[in-house]
């Protein structure tokens, strides 16, 4: 095996080459930038101990002529859900939480929850739940909760409510079905899981994840409120205008300014910002079955539990589960894969609002990254 170092126009890259195959992420990804299909991307390939490849393409801000750099800040959006699930599992490891205990044990306010059922002749009735919601339901998107509470849906913002108020609004938002009956992707459910962490730990959710996850993993850039200095390195989101040109946009689901702590609130379901070099550390911990640099963050049992799917659903606890891989994406296009059997990671960072070639590029990167580890 050989390691080759070289300098690109935007960042230092390390590419791992085997004697059998030379894999070039750049040859696969750069054409999307050259054609103007995508604005800017950072890709990361890693194993449990080291970053094998980190490459930058295009621009993090076209108007300001800023080329994409490895320390660009990204809204990882729903990849926050995996972090929240980890926070829950830390407390499960400690015996403070039980995945199968009714969530009303921790949040008695939820005893008021009702489920909306369709009765005869098309009438919808609100009725008591047939069985209680558990943390297992919340983390696997089988709780019956909608994507957002009614108030959040009206505002179309995920960061407009503090967790205590979000909990109150949740008690007035009927479930769509009984817990465990179906699977519907739910930001609301993960927010409630984060509220449980806050309630039983006795500290704000953000303080808990900072103390128990971000600090031990040395994720210095991880934040729910980017500072003005951090925002100077924010990767701008883009969509295509009517002429097929890249056009900068704002993140629809978040309130601006992003640094405002008085009006924006931390969202366990999708509020995290982070840089690629820091976010890969979280994935390395998962790939290494809960260990990072000799420190145990989660037990092996907890990591294994997150990778179990209920019934035939796609979700484990805070992760999409596919064969030996845990995966998660974010609303603005970021995506991560971690193979827990072989211990490798692939991360794809972009900020976009529905660019036509985004998914094609993401899958092309994944195929290239995974081919490195094929025997």
Give the topology.
Elements: E1 2-7, E2 12-17, H1 25-34, E3 40-47, E4 51-61, E5 66-67, E6 74-77, H2 80-93, E7 115-118, E8 124-127, H3 135-139, H4 150-155, H5 163-171, H6 187-201, H7 205-214, H8 228-231, E9 238-240, E10 246-248, E11 272-274, H9 276-287, E12 291-292, E13 295-296, H10 300-306, E14 320-322, E15 325-329, E16 335-339, E17 344-349, H11 358-372
Antiparallel strand pairs: 1-2, 3-4, 3-17, 4-5, 6-11, 7-8, 9-10, 12-13, 14-15, 15-16, 16-17
Helix pairs in contact: 1-11, 2-6, 2-7, 5-6
At a glance:
The chain has 375 residues and is of the alpha+beta class.
Report on this structure.
This protein has about 375 residues and is an alpha+beta fold. The protein is built from 11 helices and 17 strands. The strands form 6 sheets. Strands 5-4-3-17-16-15-14 form a 7-stranded antiparallel beta sheet, with helices on both faces. A two-stranded antiparallel sheet has the order 1-2. A hairpin with a 4-residue loop joins strand 4 (about 50-60) and strand 5 (about 65). The protein is globular and about 55 Å long. About 45% of the residues are buried. Mean pLDDT is about 90; it is low at about 1-10 and about 10-20.
Q: What helical percentage do the residues reach?
A: 25-40%
| Major pleated sheet | 7 strands, antiparallel
Helix segment tally: 11
- Strand composition percent: 15-25%
Gyration radius over CA = 21 Å
* Coarse shape: globular
Number of strands: 17
**Element string (H = helix, E = strand):** EEHEEEEHEEHHHHHHEEEHEEHEEEEH
Distance from N terminus to C terminus (CA atoms, Å) equals 13 Å
